[in-house]
Amino acid sequence: MGTQEEDPTSPSRALLSCIFLTCIALSAAFSATDQSVSRPLKKLEKPVVILISCDGFRFGYQFKTSSPNIHRLIADGTEAELGLIPVFPTLTFPNHYSIVTGLYPAYYGIVNNQFVYPKTGDAFTTSSHEPKWWLGEPLWETVVNNGLKAATYFWPGSEVKKGSWDCPRKFCMLYNESVPFEDRVDTVLSYIDLPSSEAPVFMTLYFEDPDHQGHQVGPDDPRITEAVARIDSSIGRLIDGLEKRGVFEDVTIIMVGDHGMRHVPILAIRPPPSYSPSDFVAKMNEGLESGRVENGKYLKFYLEEELPSRLYYVASDRIPPIIGLIEESFMVEKKKQQECGGAHGYDNALFSMRTIFIGHGPQFARGKKVPSFENVQIYNLVTSILKLKGAPNGSSAFP
Ligand SMILES: [Zn+2]
Questions:
Q1: Cα 249 to middle of ligand 1, angstroms
Q2: Any catalytic annotation for residue 92?
Q3: Measured in angstroms, how far is the CA atom of residue 294 from the centroid of ligand 1?
Q4: 378, 256 in Cβ contact below 8 A?
Q5: Ligand 1 centroid from CA 343, angstroms
Q6: What is the pTM of this model?
Q7: How far is residue 49's CA from residue 387's CA, in Å, rounded to a whole number?
Q8: pLDDT of residue 295
Q9: Ligand 1 centroid, distance to 364 Cα (angstroms)
Q10: Residue intervals in the chain for CATH 3.30.1360.180
Q11: What class is the 48-261+347-386 domain?
Q12: DSSP E strand boundaries for the chain
C-alpha cells in the first residue's frame, strides 16, 4: 500500500465540479446561524468551536432519560427539530468524514467502513491512515490553512497526515477507545487555558457511545439509556469546565451524531469479471420478486449508476457496481446466526437513521428549532462561525 499523496482512485476533476454544481443546485433551505442574534465575545479573542460526536446517537435518545445538560444546550441553543440527516451509507466513517468535509462519500472516497479498491486489491479498513484514501479537505486542515490551530480528540480521518495537517502530537490524539470520557473532556478544556496565540480555535471530541451499546442490544434496551446518561454527564463536565473559565457563552458547542440505530450494513457486491453486473442485478431481482424467496420483496438490487440520485452514491470507482437496498428492520445474513442487536447502513432517508444536531454559542439563536438538514452542511457552518475561508464543497447556503 503506497503513501503517495497523488491518488489514482480519486474522481476526476470533472466529476468533482459536477458534484459541486449539483450541491449548489440543492442549496440548503435553512440557516442554522442567525446573524441578527449574533452575540459579541466577552472573554475570548477569537471564535472557538468544539464539535462533539456521539456515535450512533439516534434522534430521540435525548428523551430516553433525564439529560439536563443536553437539554440545557437545546433550550439555550438551536436544534434540528426532527434530527440531523446522515449521508448514505449510514455508517460511522463516511458520516464522520462528511461532517468535517461537507462532501458526500463518493467524492472523498471513504465509501464504506471497509472496502477493497479493485484496481490494486488494496483494502481500506478503519485503521488505514494513508492519505491516498482520504480525499477532500477536513476542517482541521482548513483551520491550519488559515494560520490557526486545530485539535482533534478522536475523529475518523484525523490521524491522517495530509496537506498542512501533520497530526501534531499535542493536538491530535491517536485513537484509543479505552481513554475515559472524562479525560477527553479535560484535555479539550486544557486547550482553552492556552495563550490565545497557541489555543486551538477548532476542536473535535468523540464519544463511542451509544453506538457501542446499540450494536450489542438494539435501540430500546436499558443499557442505551445508561449510555445516554453517561454522555449527558460528559457534556455536563464540559459545560462546567467552560463556565469555570468564564467562556461558556463565548465557545460554540456543536453536538451531533453520525447516524441513528435500527435493527444492516450496506450490501455491496462486486461480481467476478466474467459476470455482467446488469445480468446479475436482473436475475437477483427476478428471484427476489418471484415469491420463492422469503422476505425477498424487502431487498432490491441496483446497478450503482441506477441508485436513487438523492443518495449521491455514484461516480467513484471505489463503489462496487451492485448495491442492495434493504427495507428497514430487515437484514441479510450470510448464515444462520443469533441476531438481537442493532445495525445501521440503511437508506439515509429513514427516520430511524437520523441523529441529533444542537448548536450552542454566540452565533446560534436561543431556543430556535430548524428543519432537518443533511450533515454535509456542517462544514460551511463551522467555517462561517470561525470566519475562515473554506474549501469549495457546494453546500454554500449558510450566511
Ligand atoms: Zn457510528
A1: 29
A2: yes
A3: 30
A4: yes
A5: 10
A6: 0.88
A7: 11
A8: 86
A9: 26
A10: 267-326
A11: alpha beta
A12: 48-54, 78-80, 115-116, 123-124, 150-153, 202-207, 251-256, 267-269, 299-303, 322-326, 357-360, 368-370
Which contiguous run of DSSP H or E holds residue 241? helix 222-244
pLDDT tens per residue across span 136-193: 999 999 999 999 999 999 999 999 999 999 999 999 999 999 999 999 999 999 999 9
CA gap 50, 52 in Å, rounded: 6
CA of 208 to the centre of ligand 1 (A): 8
From the list 78, 90, 92, 355, the catalytic residue is: 92
**How far is the C-alpha of 72 from the C-alpha of 313, rounded, in Å?**
37
Query: Per the structure block, which three cell numbers stand in for 337?
Result: 446466526
Ligand 1 centroid from CA 36, angstroms: 35
Tell me the torsion sign for CA atoms 124, 130, 133, 139: positive
Amino acid present at 377: Q
Tell me the pLDDT band of 245, cut-offs 50, 70 and 90: very high
173: cell is 490524539
User: 267-326: which CATH topology?
Assistant: Gyrase A; domain 2 (3.30.1360)
Binning pLDDT at 50, 70 and 90, where does residue 334 land? low
> Is a pLDDT exceeding 90 seen at residue 135?
yes
How many angstroms is it from 136 CA to the middle of ligand 1? 20
| Among the listed residues 379, 373, 398, the one whose alpha carbon sits nearest the alpha carbon of residue 59 | 373
Place of cell 497523488: 6
- Scan for cell 443518495, then name that residue: 311
Q: How far is the CA of 258 from the centre of ligand 1 (A)?
A: 5
Q: Measured between alpha carbons, how far is 71 from 236 in angstroms, rounded to an integer?
A: 10
Q: Which of 286, 319, 278, 318 lies closest to 302 in space, CA to CA?
A: 278
Report the alpha-carbon distance of residue 382 to residue 390 in Å, rounded: 9
Taking the CA atoms of 18, 23, 26 and 27 in sequence, report the sign of the dihedral they define.
negative
Q: Where in the chain is the domain with CATH 3.40.720.10?
A: 48-261+347-386
Single-letter amino acid, residue 289: E
